[in-house]
Design brief:
This protein is an alpha+beta fold. It contains 10 helices and 16 strands. The radius of gyration is 21 Å and the shape is globular.
Length: 329
């Protein structure tokens, strides 16, 4: 098996770079005040932020606002005590590498002080009215940044060749969404994986995918250039107390069920969840799905309990089983 998964942790000296959690928001806003950058819009974009942390202190940040397969880079900030130590460089390189792995098409930014810095990373000046209209609706374009701010663009490479492995696990991209939607809908129509009863639209899947930043990875299994399964870590509950708990989704294409695709996906996704500092992963499934039960039990999930007659599907009440896996044991 070959994997191409973007690492979620790196170090610069005594600092660690990793995706932001909801509980990091107040510290990020405080950092913006320290370096005199706009705070507006950060809370809405926190899912797509990275931080640099020394111990428990946040000393750097960078993020994007996502507009389909284009995005707006914002809030690159380094605490004064860490400036000049390469942390801004590391944050920028981490974000651009992640966006490339996810095959975003382009990234834009506005800056009043760092035009030369970003030029070193392939950004070039662009007229504000040449930026996609969706990006122009951001708070940075509308009010947070002055009209005198330099507008810059960087196009990202979108082609990627498969290594030719029998089964290839990688980050999901926007180009994969039709396949993800089709596989998800197979699970709905076959009544084996979810209480959803109506197929999802591609537009719904695109909205779902946009809500998955670096802390909520979506992985695909590819074979012979075809996506044959996918798995994701999802927000379990938006309350801050639950930020160390992730919800799990796994779907496998009909023809590939029972061939180890789900196991390969979870063998990659579970360690990634641990690296992202999740305490546990939870899931809800159908207890009559014997293959699913074998998969989850084989990966160390234990049964929490069964909801009796939890959903009405095709006129019949069905039970659901709740399972969990603690990641620090």
């Amino acid at each position: 098996m070959v994997e191409r998964i973007f690492p979620r942790r790196s170090t610069v000296g005594t600092a660690t770079i990793l995706p932001a959690k909801p509980g990091d928001l107040s510290a990020i806003l405080e950092l913006m005040t320290t370096v005199q950058l706009p705070q507006a819009g950060i809370s809405e974009a926190i899912e797509h932020f990275w931080i640099a942390r020394e111990g428990a202190k946040i000393i750097g940040s960078i993020g994007v606002e996502v507009y389909a397969n284009r995005c707006l880079l914002r809030s690159l900030a380094v605490h004064p005590s860490w400036q000049g130590k390469g942390l801004g460089k590391a944050l920028t390189e981490t974000l651009l590498a992640y966006l490339t792995a996810k095959r975003f098409q382009a990234v834009y930014l506005l800056t009043t002080t760092a035009e030369a810095f970003f030029a070193r990373y392939g950004f070039h000046p662009i007229a504000r009215d040449a930026v996609p209209q969706t990006v122009q609706q951001s708070v940075e374009f509308q009010s947070a940044c002055p009209l005198t701010a330099a507008c810059m663009e960087r196009l990202l490479p979108t082609s990627s060749s498969s290594p030719g492995a029998d089964l290839y696990i990688r980050e999901a991209t926007f180009a994969d969404l039709p396949a993800l939607c089709e596989i998800h809908n197979q699970g709905i129509l076959d009544r084996v994986a979810t209480l959803d009863v109506e197929p999802h639209t591609l537009e719904e899947k695109e909205e779902w995918f946009t809500r998955h930043g670096p802390r909520h990875p979506v992985l695909v299994a590819e074979a012979g250039g075809e996506v044959v399964g996918w798995a994701s870590l999802n927000t379990f509950n938006p309350r801050q107390a639950y930020q160390y708990v992730a919800d799990l989704s796994v779907y496998v294409e009909r023809r590939w069920r029972g061939k180890g695709v789900g196991r390969r996906l979870l063998e990659t996704l579970i360690p990634l969840g641990k690296a992202l500092e999740y305490h546990k992963i939870v899931l809800s499934a159908f207890p009559f799905n014997a293959a699913g039960m074998r998969l989850y039990q084989g990966q160390g999930f234990r049964t929490v309990g069964i909801y009796k007659e939890m959903g009405l599907v095709d006129g019949k009440w069905v039970d659901t089983i709740i399972m969990e896996k603690l990641l620090d044991r």
